[in-house]
Amino acid sequence: MPTIYEVAAAAGVSPATVSRVFNGANVSPEKAEAVRRAAKEMSFTPSRTARTLRLQSSEVIALVIPDIENPFFTALARGVEDVARAAGYSVVLCNTDEDHEKELRYLDIALSATMAGVIIAAAGGNSDLSGLIARKCPVVAVDRSPHGVDVDAVIVDNRAGGRAATQALVEQGFQRIACITGPSDVETATQRADGWRDAVTGNGTTDDRYLRFADFRVDGGATAMSELLALPEPPDAVFVANNLMSVGALRVLSEQGKLPPATGVAVFGDLPFLPLVPIPITVVHMPARHLGTTAAKLLLERISGDDQPARTIVLRNQLTPVG
Amino acid sequence: MPTIYEVAAAAGVSPATVSRVFNGANVSPEKAEAVRRAAKEMSFTPSRTARTLRLQSSEVIALVIPDIENPFFTALARGVEDVARAAGYSVVLCNTDEDHEKELRYLDIALSATMAGVIIAAAGGNSDLSGLIARKCPVVAVDRSPHGVDVDAVIVDNRAGGRAATQALVEQGFQRIACITGPSDVETATQRADGWRDAVTGNGTTDDRYLRFADFRVDGGATAMSELLALPEPPDAVFVANNLMSVGALRVLSEQGKLPPATGVAVFGDLPFLPLVPIPITVVHMPARHLGTTAAKLLLERISGDDQPARTIVLRNQLTPVG
DNA sequence: ATGAAAGCGCTAACAT
DNA sequence: ATGTTAGCGCTTTCAT
After folding, report:
1. What pTM did the predictor assign?
2. Which SUPFAM superfamilies match (chains A, B) (predicted)?
3. Comparing C-alpha atoms, which of B275, B251, B124, B261 is closest to residue B186?
C-alpha cells in the first residue's frame, strides 16, 4: 500500500499537497494533476485508518440490530442506508442475535473505531449504552428504546397497536383471545401484550393462561400456538406480537385445519410474504423503512452537532385488514 | 477517551506496560493489577484505530452481499458470522443492492480500513476485485464467483440444479416449461437458465419466448409470470431461478387461479416462508448457511497465511419435492 | 520485567 | 499556493 509520502515523491510535491488534493483544498491545477496521475499510477488509496486516527472520527455509522433474518429489521436497515448514503456515510450492519455479549462487542467496536454514530435496536433487557453516551458518541435508539437512558428514539406505539389489533378481534366476536408475544425482557413485547390486556379486560379473557412469551421467531410462534391449542379450553383467536411468530402460528393453525376465519388472527407487523391463498387476518402495519430513515435523520443531526435534549418520535402504525 | 498514556500515568507505569497488560504479555502481577484498576476506573477502551494503524490489520471481516432483504443472503450471513466469531473476528455486513458503485465503495473501505479479509457475493457484471488482490487482501467469493479473477470461491452447481428442477417438471408431464431467471449479467442467473435449457431441449420448448430475465426480486417474478401467462400459448409450467421471484410468481398464479398442481412450479432456492396451504412445488434446496460457514473457513485459512492456489468448492444443493 | 522512543499514514497549524 | 512538522494512540524493538 503506497502512502501519501510515496505519491508526493513521485509527483514532486509535499505530502501535505497530496492530502490537499484528496480533500479538495486549494492546489494549483498543475500540481493537482501531477498528484492525481501519480496516485492513479500507483493505485494509491488513502488510509482510512490513519485518517480516522488523525481526525478522531470516521464516516461510517453502525446499525446494530437483534435479528438480521427478520425482514422487519432488514427493511429498517434499508431506510437507514438510503439516508446515510445520501449524506456521504456508509453503514455497517451488526447482528446481535438478541445477545448482550455480541451487542456489547459491537458497541465497543463502534466506539473504539471512532465511528460517526450508532443506531441501535437494543437486544432484550438493559442494553449498556453508557459507554457511548459518556464519550458523546451520537446514538439513536430505534424500534426499542433502552431503559433509563436519555437518547433519541424512534418507535411506534406498541401498546396502542396491540390494543387496536386485539380490539379488532373482539369486534369480530371472538371470546377467548390469546396473545403470543416476544421475550419478557424486550420492551416491545411487553408493551404489545399490555395492549392485548387492555382490550381483553372486561371481555372475560384477562386470564394469563392465554398469554405466551415466545422468542419473536418462527419456531417460537409455532410452539406457543401449539400449546395454546392444547389447552383444555383453547382460544378461538390469537393476537401475535410480531411478524415472524405469526408465520409459525399460522403454520400450526394450518396443520390443525383451524386457519382463519375459523380462528381469529391479528398480527403486529407485516407478514413477510403474504400467504398465497387469501386469509382474513388483521395486521398492524409497521413502518419499518420509515423507522430507519427517521432514525438516520436524527442521527445525522446529532453528528453535525445538534445538542438539544433527547427526542422520542412515535411513528404511526396503521391497522389494516388483510386477505 | 483516555489513552494508554493516561492509564500509564494513573497506574504509575509506562505506556508500554499498559499495552502489554492488554495484550497478554509478561507483566508482574502487581503492576498488571494496578493497570487494570486504573483502566477500569477511567473506563479506558484501547483505540482500535490506532492499533489497526500500527498493526496494519484489524480483526474485522467484511461480508459484501447484493441484497440484504433476501433471506438466502441473511442465512448465509449467519453462517459466516458464527464461524468468524468463534475465531475472534467480527463481521460487518455491507449491502450493495446489486450496485457496482456501492460495492466498490465498500471494497474500498475494507481495503483502506485494512480489514482482515472480505467475503463477497458479487453484484451483477464484473466486480472489480483487483484492488484487493493487488494488496493481497484475503478474499473469498461466495454464491457467485467473479469472472476472470483467481480467488477462492464457494458455490453451488447452478446449471445442474436448474436442469434437475426443470427435469422434474418434464417428468411430471408438462409440455411448455417457462423459465424466470435473474439479471443477465449475474452468473448464477444465466447458469440456472442454462440448466433449464438443457432440460427443455428436445422437449419442444427450447423457445426463448418462455425465457424471462427478471431481477431476483418479488416484483420481478410477478411481472415475469404475468407476461408469460399473457402469451398466446402460455406455459403450463415454470422454473423460477430464485426464492424471492418464486413468491411473486406464485402470487400471480394464485390470483389467476392457476396455482399448482394446475401449473407446474419448480424453484431454485428455498421458499422463505412456506405457503400455509400445502402446494406441490419442486424445490432445489440451497445450503445458504453452509455456503457461509465454508466461505468463512476458507477466508480464515487465507488470513492465517495459507498461500495455496485458489480453490473452488462446489456445495451440493438437493432436490426436494415440497407441499 | 520494564521503560524510552520510533513509527504506522494521515491532517492541520504554522511558516513561507 | 505550498512545505515543514507535530501528533492522533498504539505496538514493539532495543536497552536496561
Report:
1. 0.94
2. lambda repressor-like DNA-binding domains, Periplasmic binding protein-like I
3. B124
